[in-house]
Amino acid sequence: MTGPAILILGPSGLGTAHRLAAALGEATIEGPETLTGEPALRPFPVFADRLRELFAEGRATVGLCATGILIRVLAPLLGDKTAEPPVIAVAEDGSAVVPLLGGHHGANDLARRLARVLDAPAAITTAGDLRLGTALDAPPSGWRLANPDDAKPFTSALLRGEPARIDPALDWLSGTWIRRADTAELRLTATTGQRAGGPTELVYHPARLALGVGCERGCPGDGVIALARSTLAEHGLATAAVAAVVSLDLKADEAAVHELAANLDVPARFFDRQALLAQVDRLANPSAIVAQEVGVPGVAEAAALAATGPEGRLLVEKTKGARATVAIAQAPAPLDAGALGRGRGRLALVGLGPGGRAWRSREAEMELAAATDWVGYGLYLDLAADLQAGKTLHRFPLGAEEERVRTALTLAGQGRNVALVCSGDPGIYAMASLVFELADPEGSDATLPDGARRAEIVVVPGISAVQAAAARAGGMIGHDFCCISLSDLLTPWAAIEMRLAAAAEGDFVVALYNPRSLRRRHQLPRALEILRAHRPADTPVVVAHSLGRPDERIEIATLADFDPETVDMMSVVLIGATATRAFAAGDGRLRVYTPRGYAAKRPAIADTLSGASHA
Length: 615
Description:
Layout: E1 5-8, H1 14-24, E2 28-32, E3 41-44, H2 47-57, E4 61-64, H3 67-74, E5 87-90, E6 97-101, H4 107-118, H5 127-132, E7 143-145, H6 151-159, E8 164-166, E9 186-190, E10 201-206, E11 209-215, H7 221-234, E12 242-248, H8 255-264, E13 268-271, H9 273-277, H10 288-294, H11 300-308, E14 313-320, E15 324-330, E16 346-351, H12 362-370, E17 373-377, H13 378-382, E18 392-396, H14 401-413, E19 417-422, H15 432-439, H16 450-454, E20 456-460, H17 465-473, E21 474-475, E22 481-485, H18 493-505, E23 509-513, H19 523-532, E24 540-545, E25 553-558, E26 571-575, E27 581-584, E28 590-593, H20 602-614
Parallel strand pairs: 1-2, 1-4, 2-3, 4-5, 8-9, 9-10, 11-12, 12-13, 16-19, 16-20, 17-18, 17-19, 21-28, 22-23
Antiparallel strand pairs: 5-6, 7-10, 11-15, 14-15, 23-26, 24-25, 24-26, 27-28
Helix pairs in contact: 7-8, 14-15, 18-19
């Protein structure tokens, strides 16, 4: 999630929170789960726990509460000030804004922005900000400070009244209160070249360089990294001046390109063939062989030039390595890497679990928060309504699974960050298998765009229905178990019957998914008939309805008296093995478990303990 989290302690902070969220765009409003009736509110069970989570994630946080509350909660976590995210306290009535932490990551700027929204003072206490009008160790986007360790003594000298020479390229310092002198010992320098700086010189690198890469399929990443770094060093260019690693979109799934981008701590961006063909007249080293291979007479040079625009110039011509080439172009001003070409694209198959937020994993929430687009059955999207702020929703009716997957893959192929939202676990009777079936170049049809097959795909597991039902009942799947879907929409009924018979003969605990629907009525009775032939009449049966949701209902019966009419399309049915047992606990609840076999070991354990005690 890129936007700040706005935390409130109660309803009195809602008005101010909504004003700030409206101004900040992607911000989320989070409050106690006891605060009901606010559909846009993301609930948390414990304020302190949630605050610590956000701080650990590095996400900016705005607390509508007293500064002391934030200080006491976060104090044990404080260490490296250069790594702390912005933490800002705002009075519930909007009368004051106090940046507490994260000055190195824009806390003061965010505080000023919030103060303008609320027409309130921003209590900036950083000496440099107050007396110089800027924080020299926190340059604006597109600039990087080469020697941050020297910022403190340099700032101290300025605060003592010493003047400085300021490079004209550092136009973002023009409105500050730094004393200037052309002959001053202190210098503020802008360069794309390698320069160390020191206590009397702060060096800022503008992100004006685009590093173009072309490589063979499967090229080792360490070779590309070595080639790129040696080329930058040979030409005296600073790695911090690189805005992005760029290439042809056919390389969007090339691991070496992404390894290089990660090594340089910049994004990897990609251009289509037309964008690179538009640079043909500017290439220094066009290649007929490359044109024959990928349809463009040069990848590294063309991509670098496409990234830097019509006013960019080729700074370093194509440089060859063993299996890769690199080239470097320079733009007239810092580049916005996010606006260059497109990213690889990412599709996360997110399992929500049964539906309730308590059973939603932290990984699932992080992927949902990071996604720009959500795709899924409308009910599933609504189960995560607390995280929907700022998302583009692609809602589908029940069914249309292949249409959902194609939409999700196509969006990811356009460079978007997509979440395909599933209930339960995406890999269990859900979308994971279909996604990979369509992405498989051997199995998918030609209608899927090429970029869709190059998107990154991750699967985020969720608590499945079989796990949730067994947990509610006790320990039913403590030994071997299997899952069988009774839906014959995609699987012939004869194959399902064969699997039921094998599971019955194998004495597995059996979880029956999709046990019945409005149209499918005979499958569950037939499954029970097959299983009853291999199970005693008192075998426990668990029926779980609407797991993790407000209308959840758990019913426990025996195989003899189990009534299939109690089952609906929101149910999962678990039928025990011959060893599965049920008993009434002291509180009157029935508990179901399947022994693993420890009882057979108990005499030996008892003898061992007895021998030890006699010794």
